[in-house]
Design a protein that fits this description.
Mean pLDDT: 92
Structural class: alpha/beta
Helix content: 40-55%
Order of helices and strands: HEEEHEHEHEHHHHHEHHEHH
Strand content: 15-25%
Number of helices: 13
Largest sheet: 8 strands, mixed
Number of strands: 8
């Protein structure tokens, strides 16, 4: 009996390092397509909405300040980023007394991924529905990247709901249809499905001229590629591609100069992001993505706008130059 116990104990001791190593190398459980398993910095709530007859849920964070100033900021995220990346800006604004509302738009982050196509008008209506739900009559809108296009649409469609508009490294300052030929959705889905995590990292670094350490970019890689093993990944991918088609098919460049609300463009000097550039004829590619200059030109045409360009920064300007960004945003909102 003792020999049997000794043999069992020896086998367990021999197996335990193997078990530990197996646990270390075991693949992570994939995130769900609503980013289940991916942590956000504040509690996430869900607002039911209906888009084109489809019942959906819009996720959002609602962060109350310790010493309220009676004003609210709505943060609008970009295409390739979950709204959790706003964490340092939420903290900055909250410390300044602002209530901060941070939605994931339908099709993104922890919100539902619809079967139908995405449209800026729907996203704008959803955002206003969220403000109505929270009983917020008027808000400061601070937007980044694709969120800048949405911020423009909200400001044009609901001018009485917007106090100030901050466009942080917005895309859509030009009409990409003038450069890029239309591409079928199925072809884009096939191409995006072949993209690897390493390829995506290089794509972000190249397209966005990111001035951040590699580990700071890793959460964006994880948020996208740990979804791939989810059984619902094809639905997520179609929604992601639909967002790219929305950018292409629904330009806002022609509306920006018509915005009357006080507007601040905050641009990274090295940000030349231009969605679809690789698909444009080679002779036209160099003309695309002159974003800082485009922002200056547009601001000059607007009744109440200015453009600030931060040197040595790329597309993630609020993460790359946080102190300068804080100075610009709080100074502007304090007007």
């Amino acid at each position: 009996m003792n020999r049997l116990l000794s043999a069992a104990l020896a086998a367990a001791l021999l197996a335990s390092p193997l078990t530990a190593r197996a646990a270390e190398t075991a693949p992570r459980e994939p995130y769900g397509i609503a980013l289940e398993g991916f942590a956000y910095p504040y509690p996430v709530h869900l607002l039911p909405v209906v888009n084109d007859g489809e019942q959906l849920g819009m996720a959002y964070m609602d962060v109350a300040p310790a010493q309220p100033n009676g004003r609210t900021v709505v943060l609008l995220h970009g295409r390739n980023f979950p709204s959790s990346y706003w964490a340092p800006v939420i903290k900055m604004l909250s410390e300044a007394g602002f209530r901060v509302v941070v939605p994931d738009q339908i099709g993104f982050g922890k919100s539902s991924k619809p079967k139908g196509e995405l449209h800026f008008d729907n996203l704008a209506r959803n955002t206003i529905a969220l403000l109505d739900h929270l009983k917020i009559d008027k808000a400061e809108v601070v937007a980044h990247s694709l969120g800048g296009m949405l911020g423009v649409r909200i400001s044009r469609a609901y001018p009485d709901r917007v106090a100030h508009l901050v466009l942080t490294a917005p895309i859509g300052l030009e009409d990409y249809r003038l450069y890029v030929p239309p591409t079928p959705t199925e072809k884009i889905i096939e191409s995006e499905d072949k993209l690897t995590a390493d390829g995506y990292r290089k794509q972000l670094q190249t397209n966005y001229a990111i001035k951040l350490p590699p580990e700071a970019i890793t959460p964006f890689i994880d948020a996208r590629f740990n979804i791939k093993n989810s059984p619902d990944y094809p639905r997520w991918l179609r929604a992601f591609v639909s967002s790219g088609q929305m950018i292409y098919r629904e330009p806002v460049a022609h509306e920006i100069a018509l915005i009357t609300e006080p507007t601040l463009f905050i641009m990274g000097a090295d940000d030349h992001n231009a969605p679809g550039r690789p698909l444009a004829p080679e002779a036209l590619r160099a003309k695309m993505g002159q974003n800082a200059e485009l922002a200056k030109q547009l601001a000059a045409k607007m009744p109440n706008a200015r453009a600030e360009v931060i040197p040595d920064t790329g597309h993630l300007v609020f993460l790359e130059a946080p102190e300068k960004y804080k100075e610009l945003v709080l100074g502007f909102l304090g007007r």
